[in-house]
Design a protein that fits this description.
The complex is a heterodimer. By secondary structure, chain A is of the alpha+beta class. Chain A has helices at residues 21-31, 41-46, 59-72; strands at 11-18, 83-92, 101-114, 117-127, 133-144. A 5-stranded antiparallel sheet of chain A has the order 1-3-4-5-2, covered by helices on one side. By secondary structure, chain B is of the alpha+beta class. The chains are: A alpha+beta, B alpha+beta.
């Protein structure tokens, strides 16, 4: 098989992200979230959060830094010209609030060829400053014509 | 969270992203891939024009199911999607879903996102729970 599977099992060093209140608000606003728990500290505290809370899909913001090096790793050797984001899974744990520091590690779960396409599957695991898991993500990129 | 039973539809979420939405999503998410924000570049690589970020549309799916569960972000436990068709600004995106199962307080919802005739996200499955 032409596809390089050298990177399967490889993991990358963790990347940390400090969550800011205005960044949560910016993300929430673009997606159309209107609840004050995403914008107003007092409103968030009244609902039991430490500070303004991120919508769950904000995980793409704090885990992006950990996926960058993976995508560009020469051992992964992915052809961007024909790459599409095929599928995506997230499992959420504790909520993420302004002030949290989230550390994300990434690893390569599998690289397989099917029907002339390369399926690259990566995992990210993000934990907060207390070591509690905020999210686990499974990212599948599909490369045509491998 | 209101009672949900298998076969129930969740409230539809319909959004028409404006022409500059991909720019704002790029800023919010940090994904500045030019296929999303530069129509000319997008056409040069064979696309009809700038396309929406798949993860933006997944964000809309997450909002539809979170809203259906009562709006608390803690209620969304899991979401998996397959990205299929491309989607574009200035055209309506509709997210619909149906409750597949309810077990031990966890409600599984099957979701799709469409734009016109095109299924942008399919085979999406969300897990929501009243246990926050």
């Amino acid at each position: 098989m032409a596809l390089s599977t050298e990177a399967v099992g490889k993991s990358w060093p963790s990347v940390s992200y400090e969550v800011g209140k205005e960044k949560i608000g910016e993300y929430a606003r673009v997606l159309g979230f209107e609840s004050p728990i995403h914008f107003d500290t007092e409103a968030a505290r009244a609902e039991g959060f430490r500070d303004v809370v991120a919508p769950p899909m904000f995980c793409v913001v704090y885990s992006a830094g950990a996926m960058g090096p993976v995508i560009f790793d020469p051992e992964v050797a992915m052809n961007f010209a024909t790459m599409v984001h095929g599928s995506q899974e997230f499992e959420w744990g504790v909520p993420v609030c302004s002030g949290d520091v989230i550390s994300t590690t990434s690893s390569c779960l599998s690289i397989e060829e099917r029907d002339g396409k390369g399926f690259y599957v990566f995992e990210t695991v993000s934990v907060n400053q207390d070591g509690d898991q905020a999210v686990r993500g499974v990212w599948t990129n599909i490369v045509r014509g491998v | 969270m209101s009672e949900m039973n298998p076969g129930d539809s969740i409230p539809e979420l319909a959004v028409t992203p404006d022409r500059y939405l991909p720019n704002r999503y790029a800023g919010a998410s940090g994904d500045f891939n030019p296929i999303h924000i530069d129509p000319e570049f997008a056409r040069q690589v064979g696309l009809p024009g700038a396309i929406l970020h798949g993860l933006y549309v997944m964000g809309l799916v997450s909002k539809a199911v979170t809203d259906a569960a009562g709006g608390d972000p803690r209620s969304l436990k899991g979401l998996s999607v397959q990205f299929r068709g491309m989607s574009f600004p200035e055209q309506e995106i509709v997210v619909t879903g149906e409750v597949a199962s309810v077990e031990d307080g966890v409600t599984e919802i099957d979701v799709i996102a469409t734009q016109g005739e095109s299924q942008v996200i399919r085979n999406a499955s969300a897990r929501v729970s009243r246990d926050l």
